[in-house]
Amino acid sequence: MKIGILGAGAIGSILSDRLAGAGHDVMIANSRGPQTINAAALRGGARAVEAVDAVQGVAVLILSVPLHRVPDLTTLVEQAPTDAIVIDTSNYYPHRDQPITPIDNGQTESEWVAEQLGRPIVKAWNAVGSGPFEAASTEDGTDERIAIPVAGDNVDAKRVAMDLVEVTGLDAVDAGPLAESWRQQPGTPVYCTGRPASSIPALLEAADATAAPRRRDIVITAVQERIQTDSTVTGDYITRLNRAVY
Q1: Do 74 and 118 meet the contact criterion of CB atoms below 8 Å apart?
Q2: pLDDT for the residue 222
Q3: Which of 26, 165, 175, 196 is close enough to 149 for a disulfide, judged by CB 3.0 to 4.6 Å?
Q4: Domains along the chain?
Q5: Secondary structure of residue 237 in the 3-state scheme
Q6: CA-to-CA dists, residue 81 to 59, 66, 161, angstroms
Q7: Could you tell me the CA-to-CA distances from 210 to 19, 182, 206 in Å, in that order?
Q8: What is the Cα–Cα distance from 61 to 55, expressed in whole angstroms?
Q9: Phi/psi at 158 (5° precision)
Q10: Strand 85-88 vs strand 122-123: parallel, antiparallel, or unpaired?
Q11: Could you tell me the pLDDT band of residue 244, with boundaries at 50, 70 and 90?
């Protein structure tokens, strides 16, 4: 399958490596040019390309950029095939993205993204930290394999996304339509808590839309304070912290 990835940060680079390693034809791009893409993103055989080339003729287009950068991708996404499946991995953090009023007023992050792009999207890979993701085994049947929710309105597109999640070393759990994707946003019980597939439905059900922003901000404040004291912020610390706020 031909896959384009826009964004070569931690999650985008892991996706590039794993998906190419699984035999997919992967192109990855960022806003600074192919020469700036980390070699780790290319280990599996992916190609570093210009952003405009990463959307040409793809069956799947993965967006892995900070949420506030999504509107900047509209022109590029318009150049992807109309039947391409667009998968978004982003999350809303007001301290980084600046306040986005519709989301602050209750619109789901994913529906806001779809609105900006003018395309249907699937939400995946947003609820796992880069550390645990990097450490996850790609072998099927691993005990206590980390699972993540996948939300979307098109059943076929969501199935493709879930199949791709599986080959990247995570179990995929159907989280329902995009309107329910708030249940996997930062501050919810499923977000970056490293749970197995058997736990995901109950965690999604336990999500509290009112409490989630406050819990999200508690985690961010704790991380920022830890960084200021020169303490190491590991993937395990992030997982334990997200679990603790519930």
Answers
A1: yes
A2: 92
A3: 175
A4: 2-205 (3.40.50.720)
A5: helix
A6: 8, 23, 17
A7: 36, 11, 12
A8: 7
A9: -65, -35
A10: parallel
A11: very high
Q: How many CB atoms lie within 10 A of CB 44?
A: 18
Alpha carbon distance 223, 226 (integer Å): 5
Residue 236 amino acid letter: D
Model confidence over 98-141: pLDDT tens digits?
999 999 999 999 999 999 999 999 999 999 999 999 988 767 66
In whole angstroms, give the CA distance from residue 178 to residue 4: 22
With contact defined as beta carbons under 8 Å apart, do 90 and 65 qualify? yes
- Model-wide pTM > 0.85: yes
3-state helix, strand, coil in the chain (%, to 5): 45, 15, 40
Q: How far apart, in whole angstroms, are the C-alpha atoms of residue 128 and residue 148?
A: 7
Q: How far apart are the C-alpha atoms of 227 and 31, rounded to whole Å?
A: 27
Which residue(s) pair with 219 in the sheet?
none
The order of strands in the sheet holding 147-152 is 47-48, 25-29, 2-6, 60-63, 85-88, 122-123, 147-152, 171-174
Residue count of the chain: 246
